[in-house]
Amino acid sequence: MFAGKCMKYMLVVMMMIGGFSAVAQTAHEYKQSAIIKHAARDFKGAISDYSKAIELNKDDSDAYLHRGNCEFQIEEFDAALADFNKTIVLNPKNAKAYYSRAVSYATKKKYNEALEDVNRVIELDSTYLNCYNLRGQLRTSTGNKQGACDDFTHSKAIGDANAEEFLKQHCGSLPGYGESLLLNLPVEEHWKIGDNQDNGQVQVLDFIHENEKLDSWSELINMTAIKGVTGIAMDTAMRLMFAQTEKNSPAAKLTFIEKDESTLFQWIIFTIESPSFVNDPKPESQLWYIIQGKQALYTNFRAIKKAAIPDELKEKWTRFFKTGKIIYK
């Protein structure tokens, strides 16, 4: 999904893979490890840990759901459907399971089955943000254009940023929910979105300068929201992220800058400066800002392709990240 060395870190939650794998013993710990690997796009590793969690707790509906999502990512669609079915048997009111099964059915072009599941999601949770866009696309595929446009319009009204594009694409000129992190990107720096990915559990935004491309950037801002991951100690997040980086860059340097664990939303700022990587001699250095929300862990960094970050940039980037706010809509 992502190109370039920085994409190795795009899901910053890789920071916790090593730390969890060394101590994971209980079903809960296996599942937490799996969630982190899942976020880091290590789908096979996540499937393995979810399976271990299931072996220890065969009634954990969430483990089946997340394993199914990983199986879907590596195109093991039948296995994914089996896990979504099992999730629904264990928890018939799990809206996420119906949504994931709907996506799987849609991938297999079973649009009517997918529509049934999407309708069930809306019955269970009318605020499910991605659901109306999905139902709109399914209605488009089954010839119900007016119903599709109604869904896209509703999706836009509740804050889905992708709805506008669907309206333009399918509805011509036809006319928030949840927690998120707001970062005010300086206008004078001329940022644009280089990539935007959301699999329902992890949302990743990459920003690059307007005159640059994703595979040849000079500076990059990454914003990652890992939904459902809470209670992570800030020092632990920093140490585990650095441990993960060291695997690919043995000469990497970690520098703690600042943190606040007394506030409602705990945060930490640190740098990881890498003069080279095992499979890439080019340097890359990042200033990280990690903040714990009530609904998700938000991991962010600014990066340059240098072996170290100049002090003036560290100060500038630190000021920038400290303006970040957890918001609700």
Spatial shape? globular
Tally of separate helices? 12
| Radius of gyration, taken over Cα atoms and rounded to an integer in Å | 21 Å
Identify the CATH class of the largest domain: Mainly Alpha
* Beta-strand share of residues: 15-25%
Give a quick summary of the entry:
This protein is an alpha+beta fold. Helix content is 45%, strand content 20%.
Topology, element by element:
Layout: H1 17-23, H2 27-39, H3 43-56, H4 61-73, H5 77-90, H6 95-107, H7 111-124, H8 131-141, H9 145-157, H10 163-171, E1 179-182, E2 191-198, E3 202-209, E4 219-227, H11 234-248, E5 253-260, E6 267-274, E7 284-292, E8 296-304, H12 311-321, E9 325-328
Antiparallel strand pairs: 1-9, 2-3, 3-4, 4-8, 5-6, 6-7, 7-8
Structure overview:
The protein is of the alpha+beta class and 329 residues long. It is 45% helix and 20% strand. It is built from twelve helices and nine strands. It has helices at residues 17-23, 27-39, 43-56, 61-73, 77-90, 95-107, 111-124, 131-141, 145-157, 163-171, 234-248, 311-321; strands at 179-182, 191-198, 202-209, 219-227, 253-260, 267-274, 284-292, 296-304, 325-328. The strands form two sheets. A seven-stranded antiparallel beta sheet has the order 2-3-4-8-7-6-5, sandwiched between helices. Strands 1-9 form a two-stranded antiparallel ribbon. Helix 3 runs antiparallel to helix 4 (61-73), helix 4 (61-73) packs antiparallel against helix 5 (77-90) and helix 5 (77-90) runs antiparallel to helix 6 (95-107).
